[in-house]
Amino acid sequence: MAKERGKRVYRKATEEERARHAKIREQIADELPEIKKRARQRLALLKKEGTPLRQVLTALRAERERQGLSLSDINERTGIDRAALSRLENNEDANPTLATLERYADAVGKQMVVLLLEPTI
Length: 121
Prior knowledge:
- It is a single chain.
- With about 120 residues, this protein is mainly α.
- It has 2 domains: about 15-50; about 50-105, Orthogonal Bundle (434 Repressor (Amino-terminal Domain)).
- It contains 6 helices and no strands.
- Helix 4 (about 70-80) crosses helix 5 (about 80-90).
- The radius of gyration is 21 Å and the shape is elongated.
């Protein structure tokens, strides 16, 4: 059974909201080119290097392949469905829990460590 998604409801902004939005646009007008430039740089970096999550999943897959393990082997070690493992490795929009990543890492003899860092851009 497919999950039903809510519908977006569009309404016209009130005069007060339009005035507030115009004021905000005026306030950031001078900064906008720099904001857009930083956004383009960040996007280019993410396209080049991948998101941190994509990097983790790529490293897990590489380690699995280095060890000559199949998805079935990982399934046996983790209990994670083989199809779900394939989606993790191949879907750019994968959004696994930390527990899932830890189970996968453990299955290939690795340990997960989570760090919080200041942004580079």
